[in-house]
């Protein structure tokens, strides 16, 4: 039996660099929305930094049946609230971003999920963070600067929820 694997710095026979375990083919903004429902009045009454509620989700889907090419989407929603009259909060802005990447994976099946839900979003995150900061700043507000996300913890949390959903309820003892 001969070893057909190439060292990391070697080239394939046709001169191309052999693919690694994870290849980002393309990245793009799939959806971007920015709303200021109370404009222009909100700008005249804004006295303090808005309170921002963030929601983040990661989704992955194969682009071909049984293949190794996937679309990974990083979905971010930022709702900014400011104190309004009578103590009720008022929406300053709503920003929604779906930032995607197309990835080719050349790994064992047991490594696909962690790569898709941890490593791929980790690679997309800096670009999505920049877009969100730019759109909020260009919208007339201080830029929303997201802190780094622990995608491992997010993935583990998601796995814990899905296994808890499939487990039978505990039996009460007397």
TrEMBL record:
Kindly indicate whether the keyword 4Fe-4S belongs to this entry. Answer: no
Task: Extract the InterPro entries matched here.
Answer: SecB, SecB-like_sf
Q: Might you report a single GO cellular component term?
A: cytoplasm
Q: What single Pfam family name could you report for this chain, choosing any that match?
A: SecB
Where in or outside the cell it occurs: the entry states: Cytoplasm
Q: How does it assemble?
A: Homotetramer, a dimer of dimers. One homotetramer interacts with 1 SecA dimer.
Q: Check the record and name the HAMAP family matching this protein.
A: SecB
Record PANTHER family? PROTEIN-EXPORT PROTEIN SECB, PTHR36918
Similarity comment: family membership: Belongs to the SecB family.
Name listed for the protein in its UniProt record: Protein-export protein SecB
Q: Which organism is it from?
A: Teichococcus deserti
């Amino acid at each position: 039996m001969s070893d057909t694997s190439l060292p990391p710095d070697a080239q394939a026979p046709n001169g191309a660099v052999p693919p690694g375990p994870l290849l980002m083919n393309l990245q793009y903004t799939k959806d971007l929305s920015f709303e200021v429902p109370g404009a222009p009045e909100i700008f005249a009454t804004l006295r303090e930094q808005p309170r921002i509620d963030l929601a983040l989700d990661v989704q992955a889907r194969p682009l071909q049946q049984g293949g190794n090419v996937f679309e990974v989407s990083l979905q971010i929603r930022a709702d900014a609230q400011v104190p309004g009259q009578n103590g009720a909060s008022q929406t300053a802005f709503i920003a929604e971003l779906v930032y995607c990447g197309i990835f080719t994976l050349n790994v064992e099946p047991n490594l696909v999920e962690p790569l898709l839900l941890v490593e791929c979003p980790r690679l997309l995150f800096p670009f999505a963070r920049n877009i969100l900061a730019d759109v909020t700043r260009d919208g007339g507000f201080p830029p929303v600067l997201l802190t780094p996300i622990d995608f491992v913890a997010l993935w583990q949390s998601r796995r814990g929820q899905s296994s808890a959903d499939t487990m039978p309820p505990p039996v009460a003892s007397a």
